[in-house]
Amino acid sequence: MPRPIQAFVHTDALRHNLARMRAAAPDARVWAVVKANAYGHGIERVFEGLRGADGFALLDLDEAQRLRSLGWRGPVLLLEGVFESRDLELCSRLDLWHTVHCDEQIDMLSRHKTQVPHRIFLKMNSGMNRLGFTPTRFRSAWTRLNQLPQVDEISLITHFSDADGPKGIAEQIATFTKTTEDLPGERSTCNSAGLLRHAGDTAVAADWVRPGIALYGSAPDFPERNIAQWDLQPTMSLRSRIIATQDLQAGDTVGYGSSFKADAPMRLGVVACGYADGYPRHCPTGTPVLVDGVRTRTLGRVSMDMIAVDLTPCVETGHEAGFGSEVTLWGKASNGTVLPIDDVAQAAGTVGYELMCAVSNRVGFTQD
Ligand SMILES: *Cc1c(COP(=O)(O)O)cnc(C)c1O
């Protein structure tokens, strides 16, 4: 029998979260962002739950190909555009829309032989300083693209650096709006945080929104708000089982480095989950975890294949947790109790994005 650790991908929760994104911007079309193999969930496993989107946005050509193999005939957008000339052939063949963010990509397009002109999303660097043309260069890039026979419609896109925080998006929106004022074409600006926190702002109203993380049941602005407050549901549950128990006396320590020491007699469970499964090694004693749906904490250091959990809260509820008990590392327990991935990420000093993307290959996935 394989180790009892498994990740569950919840189709209903994906559908629910997508509906929430639509409700947040009812007049916009929705790109479901499925980069990084659908934030670690697996493109094939999220497809059913997200096929109600208007398009899929990603950055890996192999993933775009997989979407087409699933039978998706609607829009697919490459968020970073092409990396080399021959990628354009795949764009032509698979009808992929692509971002153009630098002169080199325009050069490649100008040399590309295609029967059908390409749909382009021209990217502005409005302050993020990652990809895109600065406002002073944006219009000349647009003009150059617009003259190419290889180019069909040009849409305008930018990305926010601070949609989740106090700085907000006002400056970037002002820059984007001013620079693009009299240019034709559809607009796309918002990621999840922009959409949830700023979609009511009329300046933000755009033709396409691009939610990623919120679709996967993580709050983009945690801990300011959590998924319950945004009415989002976890789409990935990482579950395992207790494979051993130990009864500790006061003074006993747990795991490598003896970093946890019991100050009274207590019972612990050993869980078949470690950092080789993608559970963060940085999680300290006290990281939340569910045992048979009861919230408790980890004890001591995370090792490669195991972690220890405190069974005291289970004992207190009168429930005999022990060998074989279900452990939910994040997501939803079988009894419906939710442990948001954001709570675990915070304990590890990171964000939900990183945890869901890092579940390792040795974890079996099940769609439910
Ligand atoms: C990843 C990404 C998104 C989605 O961001 P979330 O924070 O996950 O909602 C949107 N747009 C671009 C360009 C991205 O790279």
Automatic annotation (TrEMBL):
Residue span(s) of domain Alanine racemase C-terminal: 235-368
Keyword terms: Isomerase, Pyridoxal phosphate
GO MF entries: alanine racemase activity; pyridoxal phosphate binding
Residues carrying N6-(pyridoxal phosphate)lysine: K35
GO BP, sorted A to Z: D-alanine biosynthetic process
Pfam family, one: Ala_racemase_C
Residue numbers binding substrate: R130, M304
Matches recorded under InterPro entries: Ala_racemase, Ala_racemase/Decarboxylase_C, Ala_racemase_C, Ala_racemase_N, Ala_racemase_pyridoxalP-BS, PLP-binding_barrel
Cofactor entry: pyridoxal 5'-phosphate
Coiled coil: none
Substrates-to-products reaction catalysed: L-alanine = D-alanine
Pathway: Amino-acid biosynthesis; D-alanine biosynthesis; D-alanine from L-alanine: step 1/1
Active site: K35 (proton acceptor), Y256 (proton acceptor)
PROSITE patterns in alphabetical order: ALANINE_RACEMASE (PS00395)
GO cellular component, one term: cytosol
Top EC class of this enzyme: isomerase
Enzyme Commission number(s) from the entry: 5.1.1.1
Superkingdom per UniProt: Bacteria
Protein task: Catalyzes the interconversion of L-alanine and D-alanine. May also act on other amino acids.
HAMAP family tied to this protein: Ala_racemase
Family statement drawn from the similarity comment of this UniProt entry: Belongs to the alanine racemase family.
Name of the molecule in the record: Alanine racemase
Protein's organism: Limnohabitans curvus
